[in-house]
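dude i think i finally got it to work??
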Amino acid sequence: MSAYVIVNVRVLDPEVYKEYVKLSSATISAHGGRFLARGGNSEVLEGELPANRVVVLEFPSYERARQWWHSELYREPKALRQSASEASMILVDGVQ
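look at this
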């Protein structure tokens, strides 16, 4: 069953974040993931979650998403992103 990583990012350093974007794509695809949404238009329809840069990733399974998050391959890009932004990120199972 697919799993999804949903991210709401407030970019603090756009130049450093651009480098993260370049580096992260290969780490995601290496774990079977793909982008469903990546920073397009967004708006708050209800509640108080800020509509920053929203990213949605799909992975083949919950475990593959966790492997990506904890992978050595993603270690450096993750640190780069964390230095250039503030993010809220969740992992959720899809439905069958």
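The chain has one domain: 3-93.
im so relieved honestly
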